[in-house]
Every structure is written in structure tokens, then in C-alpha cells.
Amino acid sequence: MALWNRALTLLDRFDAPRNAEAHCDIPCGIYDPHPAQIAAQTVYTLTQKMMALTPPSDDADPHTRQTYENTIARMALVRDNHAEICKHEVSVLWGDYFKPPHVEQFPNLHQHIWMTLKQAGQARQTMDLDACTKLQEMVDQIATWFYTSKNAQDVERRVAEGHPIV
Hints:
This protein has 166 residues and is an all-alpha fold. It has helices at 2-14, 34-52, 62-97, 100-105, 109-125, 129-160.
């Protein structure tokens, strides 16, 4: 093995390998709105669970109060993280998947996605189930547009390949 490494090192002197440069956005074409939908559902569910918790009474012992505060803090942290996951997943679809033809097909796409990102922030800043429901609805609309566009692409591809459209 050492002899092999020496031979490669010698070859590198005559024809040095070139550096390949690329950015991280590999156009793999694997996109899915489902993670954003799950994250939006998690924001809703955790907000609902936090609202259902009963705060300890004023005369509760310190352990009971700490347990409550710890539970609320942990739920809020997870909810906030999932709101960020939702924003990230929606942003990836917006920046990498949706192209100009999609904007022609769905004229409100840019405005809707921008407002969805704002809604994710609103849902995590409050204890408002209506804000969480609205986030879910907005993400579901993006998913609908995504799947509609994927179906249209599949139809176009099948026609181009000479397959019958069923």
C-alpha cells in the first residue's frame, strides 16, 4: 500500500489534481413539503399542550413550580425550533424548487410564501391557536401548489418520453 501511495504522489508532481469547486445546492430534485407540514403541526400541538397545562397555585411548593416552569420552557423551546424548521423547509422550497413557471402558474406564490414565513414567527411568539392553525393552512397551500406542479411536470415528462397519459 505504501508503494501505491508513493506512486500516486509521484504522478501528482507531473499532473497535479485540480480543485473542484461547487456550492452546496446540488440540484438533486428531491424536495418535499411534508417536513414543513409536520413542523407546523408540531407548533400547533405544543401550543395546545402548553395552554392545557395548569399553572401551580401561588402557595405551591418550589418543586411543583419548578416542574411546571421546566415543562413550559421545554415545550416552548421545541415549539420554537419547529417553527424555525418550518421556515427553513418553506424557504428551501421557495428558493430551490419553485421556478418562474411556477410563479406564472401560481401568481400569489411569492407573497404567500413570504407571509407564511412571517406567520411561523407569529405562531411561535404567541399562545394563539388561531395563529398556529393559520400557519398550518398556509403551509398546506404551499404543499398543494408543490404537488400540483409536480403532477404537471410528471405529465409533461411522460408526454416528452412518449408515454400515454392515464
